[in-house]
Amino acid sequence: MPRSGPTGKRSSISSKAVGLVWTRPLAKRRVPLTREAIVAAAVSLADAEGLDSISIRRIAAQLLVRPMSVYSFAQIESKEDLFDLMIDTVCAQMLLTEGLPKDWREALRATAVRSRAVLMRHPWWIDLLGRRVLIGPNAMRYREQTLAAVADLHVDKGIRMAVVAAVETFTVGQAAFAVDRRGLSQKTDRAFAQWRGAVETYQQALMATGDFPNLARAGNMEATSPEDLEKIFMLGLDWLLNGISTSLFGAQKTRRTDQ
Amino acid sequence: MPRSGPTGKRSSISSKAVGLVWTRPLAKRRVPLTREAIVAAAVSLADAEGLDSISIRRIAAQLLVRPMSVYSFAQIESKEDLFDLMIDTVCAQMLLTEGLPKDWREALRATAVRSRAVLMRHPWWIDLLGRRVLIGPNAMRYREQTLAAVADLHVDKGIRMAVVAAVETFTVGQAAFAVDRRGLSQKTDRAFAQWRGAVETYQQALMATGDFPNLARAGNMEATSPEDLEKIFMLGLDWLLNGISTSLFGAQKTRRTDQ
DNA sequence: ACCTGAACACCGTTCAAGT
DNA sequence: ACCTGAACACCGTTCAAGT
Q1: For B166, which of A78, A80, A239 is closest by C-beta distance?
Q2: C-beta separation of B181 from A131 below 8 A
Q3: For chain A, what is the total number of helices (H) and then of strands (E)?
Q4: Å between A32 CA and D1 C1'?
Q5: From the alpha carbon of B5, which nucleotide's C1' atom is closest?
Q6: What is the pLDDT along chain B (259 residues), one digit of tens a residue?
Q7: What is the model's pTM?
Q8: Which of A71, B4, B106, B211 is deepest in the core (most CB within 10 A)?
Q9: Is the minimum CB–CB distance between A248 and chain B shorter than 8 Å?
């Protein structure tokens, strides 16, 4: 094997000729190179392999261009600019194009449910939340939409902002909680099973110390199914909306959701 | 300037001799090398410069050891192992060593307040949340503590878990929302001011389109002060706890927090 | 058996040379 | 003026050679 031969997957388009010019297929561009195409490629790569797998060079190779062309075509100055563009395309997906319910509670519930669904498909979005500022046009549209949802809530500006923040942060937190971390370290199924086994043994040893009585009763939390995670989300969202409603306007509209 | 001369900050301890042996200070170890010292160095580096600045090589240089020694001394197999250790030391800080209040609402409030305070000091923790599984011993102790907080809540296991999840996810989400992103890209004060100016102009242009009436009324959100962010957190936490209480047990205990 | 220097296979980004 | 190959200064991790 040569020292640094192209490894197929990551082969650059500048790799030297194979076969004859006549039979060699032209590097026909699969998609016209635009900022959108570049960002779309980055998003789908991140969806599939996580944020760490994003590299300018890999995206360039995927789009059959040179690494540096990504900078000039997407008009980005750094990888962080690319991240900002990725964040914003996800924000676009969170917009409720079908319109907002009139009632503020239903409107907030609708945005929260939609946001969570979108975030579950793009787990890396949450990884980026702490590092980047959300000011892209679609982030702004999303914020405008959420503010519109509570526009007829008769409370002062600060409270309205706290309401929006409460629902948004709850939603993001739930998404972070529910995200499937199975794909971590790109483990194979076999390696994953082995890892799970090690975790099991380790946790049982901890439980055996007797220092975790409540945890022992509660059982394994990582095994919570996607359906249960969604139930947990819907329950919590109702509690939060009930809480906002009763705290701001008294108890008249609350429903019991016990069991 | 030589091609790859050590740049001071990142100079390796294996850099060749300067001056005489007799006057050259011995590479006296500042702290005895242990797993704890390695993790502590990583945590403080991440606190100061963000998660991306973490590299095995930099940590090694800081501790005056070779990069590979980090692996053998900390008994880690990969950078991800180091991340897991970092996560867990933060979990340790979230434990309420002073004990839990008896009332479940006060107990949950206390854990949430403490967690948020800790997370604000270690913003990178949230960046890692989506990629790693929280199963370290201190993460387990934290979970045990939260479960203990709701141990005398007379609801079934699934509901109790949803309560814990609701408060935890809200707290993490609020911390993510409130984290100071000023340090992004290690910009200088001047570069930061310039960037802020650009953001201002950009946002004003967006507002001028008239497509963001609610946003225009609400004003600039990024400028929210740490104090206001804390108020927003406390308000939302009260709403959530009120909501849980009234939804599960009826309205008797709720207080109005209007204005 | 343990430790580690050198090497490998990547990075993001700069820059100068080419068109 | 625009584009880009080569170079620079990093990475994490493997591995073989040294003790």
Answers
A1: A239
A2: yes
A3: 11, 0
A4: 23
A5: D9
A6: 333 333 333 333 333 445 555 655 555 555 567 899 999 999 999 999 889 999 999 999 998 888 999 998 888 889 999 999 999 999 999 999 999 999 999 999 999 999 999 999 999 999 998 888 899 999 999 999 999 999 989 999 999 999 999 999 999 999 999 987 766 555 677 777 888 888 888 999 999 999 999 999 887 777 789 999 999 999 999 999 999 999 998 865 444 444 3
A7: 0.87
A8: A71
A9: yes
Find the closest chain B residue to A258 by CA distance. B248
Quick check: A123 contacting B, CB < 8 Å? yes
Question: Which nucleotides of chain D does any protein CB come within 7 A of?
Answer: 2-6, 8-15
The conformational region for residue B49 under phi > 0 = left, psi -120 to 50 = alpha, else beta, is: alpha
Do the Cβ atoms of A162 and B235 come within 8 Å?
yes
Distance from CA of B236 to the nearest CA of A (A): 5
Question: At A50, phi and psi to the nearest 5?
Answer: 90, 165
What's the Cα-to-Cα distance from A83 to each of A74, A193, B161, rounded to whole Å?
Answer: 12, 33, 34
The spacing between the Cα labelled CA in A125 and the C1' in D2, in angstroms, equals 34
Q: Are A134 and A84 in contact, with CB atoms under 8 Å apart?
A: no
Task: State the sign of the Cα–Cα–Cα–Cα dihedral B70, B75, B79, B81.
Answer: negative
- A6 Cβ contact partners less than 8 Å away, ≥ 6 residues apart: A12, A15
Distance B56 CA to D19 C1' (A): 24
Three-state DSSP string of B85-120: HHHHHHHHHCCCCCCCCCCHHHHHHHHHHHHHHHHH
